[in-house]
Amino acid sequence: MSTLQEGVTSQTLDELAINTIRTLAMDAVQKADSGHPGLPMGAAAMAYVLWTRFLKHNPRNPAWPNRDRFILSAGHGSMLLYSLLYLTGYDLPLEELTQFRQFGSKTPGHPEYGLTTGVETTTGPLGQGFGNGVGMAMAARHMAATFNRPGFNLMDHYIYAIVSDGDLMEGVASEAASLAGHLKLGNLIYFYDDNHISIEGSTSLTFTENRGMRFEAYNWHVQHVPGNDLEAMSQAIRAAQAETNRPSLIIARTHIGYGSPHKQDTAEAHGTPLGADEIRLTKEALGWPSDAPFFVPPQALEHYRQAIQQGETAEQAWLDLKAAYARQFPELAAEWQRRIDRELPQGWQADLPSFPPSEKGTPTRRASGKILNAIASRLPELFGGSADLAPSTNTLIDNATAFSPEDYAGRNVHFGVREHGMGAALNGMAVYGGLIPYGGTFLIFSDYMRPAIRLAALMELQVIYVFTHDSIGLGEDGPTHQPVEQLAALRAIPHLTVIRPADANETTIAWKVALGHQHGPVALVFSRQSLPVFDRSQMGAVGGLEQGGYILLEAPQSRPELIILSTGSEVELAVGAARQLQEEGVATRVVSMPSWELFNAQPEAYRHTVLPPSVKARLSVEAGVSQGWRQYVGDGGDCISLEHFGASAPYQKLYQAFGFTVDAIVTHARGLLQ
Prior knowledge:
The chain is an alpha/beta fold. The chain folds into three domains: 13-310, Thiamin diphosphate (ThDP)-binding fold, Pyr/PP domains (Rossmann fold, 3-Layer(aba) Sandwich), CATH 3.40.50; 358-532, Rossmann fold (3-Layer(aba) Sandwich); 541-673, 3-Layer(aba) Sandwich (Rossmann fold), CATH 3.40.50. The strands form five sheets. The protein has a six-stranded parallel beta sheet, sandwiched between helices. A five-stranded parallel beta sheet has the order 1-2-3-7-6, sandwiched between helices. The protein has a five-stranded mixed beta sheet with strand order 16-18-17-19-20. The protein is elongated, with a radius of gyration of 28 Å.
């Protein structure tokens, strides 16, 4: 029996390396007095096999485009990922692990994209990481089909993830898994940490379905492996890599809190520190020094740090391949680089359409479809579709094929009736790179996507949402489909830009803004019903949309005594009311306010030009709840809004019944001026 390190009993190098993860996790959670030690302790062995024997990555260049992606969908077990990042040589020193869950550290409670080097996506809300991985795998297949050539596999890698019982219980994972199986994403390999424990106790309380058969029905390749059998795990990964036409699920029977004499296989190990006494006993059971927190045996660290040389070697081989590819396919190589660098091509705005004035007008959803198709040829990175609503949301690219197992180069994605899964997949596409993903559905169903939208905003990803049927204006489908509170709900999300254009030309500028906005998602909100196209020779320039709010119709001598603010389909009513008031001698200004977020980002001087503080009589008009409008209308103003659900009827009848008419606005405005 040899001693590898003073204070550590004789162990194989594998055991030493695995137990290093376990003890780092329990020490960090104990020091923070907060966290989830059980998952890292139970999943350490399978993570070790993946990271040391299979994962293609370079700790010295975490953004290497052809790296494998690893997602810890079970983000509550974040110390597993942080330990691996530190041990394999990423820019995450041991000191950061000692500051786990502390303010300002790079080791927050759940992994955060953009904060911690090596974290591929923000996880924690269960099921979202699962869906992100599906989006990454879709993006990888599309990029490979677009750019790879015989003998030149520029993009050739896997998407891995560790998922938990909670991930599999959440509905978003079911949607994403179904889509992945249909699309035959053989580059997707997930490890299911089957530890039989959730927060409330044994999973037998709520989760007794046959998960393996369920995923087989989804058209996944399923294997069952003991979680601590390193060779069996290696064989399973090789088999998963060899399965090219199905995503893989490796069901690993693990033990939460592995090694803890009293808390292994208990719910107590899930979300609370083990406690000082139990940590001492656990370390003794693992043959570990009990009086040295955050102890890392030099042999283990040296073993893990081989990832640096291996990663640099792998990347250099790829760089050599890339150089040869560039010599043989220079135009393709330049296009690939442009997209990876997230640079829009020169002249991409050249085909942005302009719509002539029209009283009859067009629905902004239809204008959006024309704009999308006008720019799609100049922006091949536009990639997306709809949750089975493309004919209604106008989100198909006319001259493009469908993304499918038969044609991964296709750009039209048929997500199916899966808004939850679509939202999560869009985030995966965005963090993967090389694409500008978009997804369409009715505005009411943004509620289904809200968790993914929130995470896109948290990560500041460029994702474009096309939300149509934006108000009671959708008519006969009734209150179940008529959004009332959804605009306010979306506007409440930090870093999400919401744009509700008033006509077709505002829609053009809205798309321009969304395509140029790289540091956060954009929600484009469009009407079902036709809206007139304003005559810009008589009204404010449409470019004002880029400031979020602008003067659409000016009062005589630019000295308003009343300001009417509005968005979307109600702007035409505001214009009609203003003209009637002007005929009555009331100096009325109309402000089109399609985006609060863009307007609030403008300098105060501009905002005061549009909304002079001296003008107290202000009236907002929007067919939704008034929440948030008070910041613009002030104490001296008022709101025409919809503080109740709609009804099933033709939209013209609804607007009349609920007070969204020119006459109603005029009457309300007169009351403000008395």
